[in-house]
């Protein structure tokens, strides 16, 4: 990382907070002309849309870009020549700002000449300032901008007046470029980690498709797989249905809510060490206690991806953990389903497809005890199950490690932005000589 130096002792309090006395404050409107894109009307008219004359950028396209991606290099469609005349053509290397939708207030640099819809504002004819520095600072102000937006067409809409009047800390442009370069280095790391995680996740998915179906066998395993009716090898632990309002953070007993199964990324539950909701023993009545190896399903999902979502319990605290609202706690015979392997039951195509078929037609896609018990699966023996689970778990651990690195890189970037964009920490630079 670039060397840093101490902030000058003299600072000035401004509308953007305390900044070094050798910095200035500018309004965005002082740096160039703020304009909005334009959408040809009527929307979808073939005279204007689905052409080949010029790329067409919508604010919705910005939602697909990673936060660490500063540049917009492609669009989703094209306009005809007639359509371009009813829109606004933006030149390449233009700062754009989303003024509506989920990305409201997010700034990026447009790297191609294109037309944009009216959900996008742009700073054209820019006379001063580093585009990259400007984007990084604007992106620290998205929460503020969302708080002060003017309503438009039934949804928040950031108008050009608010953008023009947004104050920006303004160091010398050489320093702006150095700050942007430092932040860009971290963005590069974040982008690389994102790509590596996506690659490792694809490899894991391929491993599961091969190993959990027997298409690929691990070395040393040749025994034929056998059919197993799950209902002949399972018992169910009694659940207790409580609302979030009945839970707390102090009681000794942990409580597993179905919502916490749906939102977690890990397929295992380390209940002895993870932060979990708690429940008073006075509310538990005759609820069962979970044991290591139990597989707990969420019994309802609003979308197909959540059907069969489950976690395998790998540890329990001394005070116990209970299965809660909308869960099914299955205790399988360990001579039929090995500990560790059960966590991946949800990824076996035959299992998921059976649950989806059985859930079809229900208002909310449901999983029931009878559904689970009715499923016939072809499974390897216990030793092969354990070996398969170890291979997939290794892939899971590698991905988890990368996710931890990604989270730390994002934290580093956040800290750098707070320091560098306010002048609390300075990068060494030589001021240009006029």
TrEMBL record:
Gene Ontology MF annotations: DNA binding
InterPro entries in the cross-refs: Restrct_endonuc_typeI_TRD, Restrct_endonuc_typeI_TRD_sf, Type-I_RS_S_subunit
GO biological process, one term: DNA restriction-modification system
Entries under SUPFAM superfamilies matching the protein: DNA methylase specificity domain (SSF116734)
Highest taxon of the lineage: Bacteria
UniProtKB keywords: DNA-binding, Restriction system
Domain Type I restriction modification DNA specificity, chain residue ranges per copy: 20-193
Keyword Mitochondrion assigned: no
Family per similarity comment: Belongs to the type-I restriction system S methylase family.
Protein name: EcoKI restriction-modification system protein HsdS
């Amino acid at each position: 990382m670039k060397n840093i130096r101490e902030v000058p002792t003299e600072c000035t309090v401004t509308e953007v907070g305390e900044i070094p006395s050798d910095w200035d404050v500018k309004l965005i409107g002082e740096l160039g002309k703020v304009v909005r894109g334009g959408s040809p009307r009527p929307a979808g008219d073939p005279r204007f849309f689905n052409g080949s004359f010029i790329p067409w950028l919508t604010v919705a396209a910005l939602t697909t870009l990673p936060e660490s991606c500063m540049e917009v290099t492609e669009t989703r469609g094209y306009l005809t020549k007639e359509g371009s005349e009813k829109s606004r053509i933006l030149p390449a290397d233009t700062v754009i700002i989303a003024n509506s939708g989920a990305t409201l207030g997010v700034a990026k640099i447009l790297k191609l000449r294109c037309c944009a819809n009216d959900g996008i504002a742009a700073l054209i004819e820019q006379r001063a300032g580093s585009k990259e520095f400007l984007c990084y600072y604007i992106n620290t102000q998205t929460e503020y901008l969302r708080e002060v937006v003017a309503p438009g067409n039934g949804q928040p809409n950031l108008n050009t007046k608010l953008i023009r009047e947004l104050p920006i800390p303004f160091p010398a442009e050489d320093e702006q470029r150095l700050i942007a370069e430092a932040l860009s280095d971290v963005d590069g790391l974040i982008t690389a980690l994102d790509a590596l995680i996506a690659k490792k996740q694809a490899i894991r998915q391929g491993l599961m498709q091969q190993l959990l179906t027997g298409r690929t066998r691990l070395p040393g395993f040749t025994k034929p797989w056998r059919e197993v009716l799950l209902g002949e090898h399972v018992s169910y632990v009694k659940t207790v249905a409580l609302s979030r309002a009945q839970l707390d953070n102090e009681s000794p007993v942990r409580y597993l809510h179905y919502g916490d199964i749906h939102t977690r990324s890990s397929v295992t539950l380390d209940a002895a060490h993870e932060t979990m909701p708690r429940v008073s023993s006075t509310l538990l009545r005759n609820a069962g206690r979970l044991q290591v190896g139990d597989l707990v399903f969420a019994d309802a999902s609003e979308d197909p991806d959540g059907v069969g979502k489950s976690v395998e319990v790998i540890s329990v605290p001394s005070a116990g953990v209970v299965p809660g609202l909308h869960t099914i706690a299955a205790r399988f015979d360990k001579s039929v389903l090995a500990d560790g392997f059960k966590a991946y039951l949800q990824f076996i195509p035959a299992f998921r497809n059976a649950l989806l078929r059985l859930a079809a037609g229900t208002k909310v896609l449901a999983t029931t005890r009878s559904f689970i018990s009715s499923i016939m699966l072809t499974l390897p023996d216990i030793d092969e199950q354990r070996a398969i689970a170890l291979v997939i778990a290794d892939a899971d651990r590698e991905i988890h490690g990368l996710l931890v690195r990604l989270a730390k890189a994002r934290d580093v970037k956040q800290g750098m932005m707070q320091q560098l964009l306010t002048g609390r920490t300075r990068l060494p630079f030589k001021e240009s000589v006029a």
